[in-house]
Write a structure and sequence with these properties.
Elements: H1 6-13, H2 16-45, H3 50-87, H4 91-126, H5 131-146, H6 148-163, H7 168-190, E1 191-192, E2 195-196, H8 200-222, H9 240-271, H10 276-312, H11 316-343, H12 345-349, H13 356-369, H14 373-389, H15 393-416, H16 420-443, H17 457-463
Antiparallel strand pairs: 1-2
Helix pairs in contact: 2-7, 2-8, 2-10, 3-4, 3-5, 3-6, 3-9, 3-10, 3-14, 4-5, 4-6, 4-9, 5-8, 6-8, 7-8, 9-10, 9-15, 9-16, 10-11, 10-13, 10-14, 11-13, 11-14, 13-16, 14-16, 15-16
């Protein structure tokens, strides 16, 4: 039997709280930094005017769909497969999974490129884009999605490394890349000296250069002596069971990812009934929601690795205990952020613009939804932990329930009252439904059999592994 790496051993035996915090700290940093990449772009693009800002609001949900699909859904399937293989001491399978992951990333990247180049104009028009804002959205979208493969390879290789329990390398690469992007983005947008300004297209070009550099850095690490995995591009026999092991988790996770972004896309379209400034205001405010996704992923990625490794080794109790530790931490942090945003919405909004209609729409959203952000964080982190367990049925149900409440509730609110704030209240209720469905079903035993809720508080505590 293959000897177990010390990093894998720590996932199985080290105290849970210190281990989760040690792994989550660099991962939270990397995820927030990666999300800030988009905020950097939005900040500088906002200087081009409200049409450019509205264009970013139209394209951003689709960019985040790609980002969350590659990093969270398929990336989660990759990390889970590698963690379980290492936990079960199948080192050869873990090495081979790297190439399988890269081929999956290549296929999805090309699919995103084709879909958005061919259907981008129709999609953004359906989301409320018109005139100059629609034209600017297409300029940005066509350039970004022409390089979709780079985004997919970047996030897939980062997931490979996280699956081994190594959160530091993705953190270092992402932070270094963001440090380059901060001056590069305004340089390409506005120009300087002999370098001509590209406008909104400059932000897209800077973003693709960031992903190209990061992808090369991850591959160089995987080929270095310091990497736990030893991947090869030649001489590896492709095996359907390895593709299936990634895709059975990743494709189910894609349903949840699509639901999350479709909820925001629907809210963007509903906001479009009140004009481009309302789209810009909602889109700018919802950027904070998108920051919660990488924050939850910051805790979720180490939980995914720990849960997957523990389940691969047969230790169900430790896997469940780790999930609840991470859930409590993430709920507390995301709820604090939401409350702060609800109390002080304008400092965030005014980072990106000062149009009165934009500020009013964004303020209404944060007042209505911010106090419920904790439930969104709860659902997100338990979704990632469920990827590690290889059990995603109920997280998907929770996401679909959120989509139904946000979409149908928002439409009814607009139809019955014609008031934008009621549309936003529907989004907040959807968060509560999302978080509680996933938490309740895991507590009821969804990971290890049928859902059956304990009949007493003491039995519940025993069920979730806290005693």
């Amino acid at each position: 039997m293959t000897a177990m790496d010390p990093r894998t051993q720590r996932l199985l035996e080290a105290p849970i709280v210190p281990t989760v915090l040690r792994l989550a700290t660099p991962n939270v940093l990397v995820m927030i930094t990666q999300a800030s990449v988009g905020l950097i772009e939005t900040y500088f693009v906002g200087k081009l005017g409200s049409d450019a800002l509205a264009a970013m609001a139209l394209v951003f949900p689709i960019v985040m769909l790609m980002q969350m699909s590659s990093a969270g859904a398929i990336g989660g399937g990759i990390a889970s497969s590698i963690a379980r293989a290492l936990g079960a001491r199948r080192r050869d399978d873990a090495d081979a999974l790297v190439l399988h992951a890269m081929l999956i990333a290549l296929g999805f990247g090309l699919a995103f490129t084709a879909a958005l180049l061919l259907g981008g104009r129709w999609l953004y028009a359906q989301m409320g884009g018109t005139g100059a804002s629609l034209d600017a959205a297409l300029v940005y979208s066509n350039l970004v999605f022409s390089g979709a493969v780079l985004v997919w390879l970047f996030n897939s290789l980062a997931a490979v490394i996280r699956g081994t329990g190594n959160m530091a390398v993705p953190a270092n690469v992402t932070v270094a890349g963001a440090a380059v992007l901060i001056p590069l983005s305004p340089l390409l947008i506005f120009g300087w000296g002999p370098i001509p300004g590209m406008g909104i297209a400059g932000g897209a070009a800077a973003l693709l250069l960031y992903y190209l550099g990061g992808t090369l850095a991850f591959w160089m690490y995987l080929r270095s002596p310091g990497s736990l995995l030893k991947p090869k591009l030649a001489g590896v026999r492709l095996r359907w069971p390895l593709f299936r092991d990634i895709l059975r988790i990743g494709l189910v996770g894609m349903i949840a990812t699509v639901s999350t972004n479709l909820s925001i896309g629907i809210a963007t379209a509903l906001s479009g009934h009140f004009g481009p400034n309302a789209i810009a205001g909602y889109g700018t405010a919802a950027r904070l929601e998108y920051l919660l996704v990488p924050l939850a992923f910051g805790f979720g990625a180490p939980l995914l690795a720990m849960v997957g490794t523990c389940i691969g080794a047969g230790d169900r109790e430790r896997a469940l205990r780790a999930a609840w530790v991470g859930a409590v931490m993430t709920f507390a942090i995301t709820e604090a952020i939401g409350l702060a945003a609800a109390i002080f919405p304008r400092p965030w909004l005014m980072l990106f613009g000062n149009e009165p209609a934009m500020l009013e729409a964004g303020t209404q959203y944060l007042h209505a939804v911010g106090p419920l952000y904790g439930f969104f964080g709860l659902g997100q982190v338990l979704h990632f932990a469920s990827q590690g367990a290889g059990r995603l049925f109920w997280p998907v149900i929770g996401n679909l329930a959120r989509l139904a409440v946000a979409g149908l509730g928002g439409w009814l609110a607009l139809r019955w009252s014609g008031d934008m704030v009621h549309v936003f209240f529907a989004q907040g209720v959807a968060f509560v439904v999302y978080g509680l469905v996933i938490a309740a079903t895991i507590a009821g035993g969804a990971w290890f059999g049928r859902v059956g809720w304990p009949r007493s508080p003491a039995a519940l505590i025993r069920r979730i592994g806290l005693t």
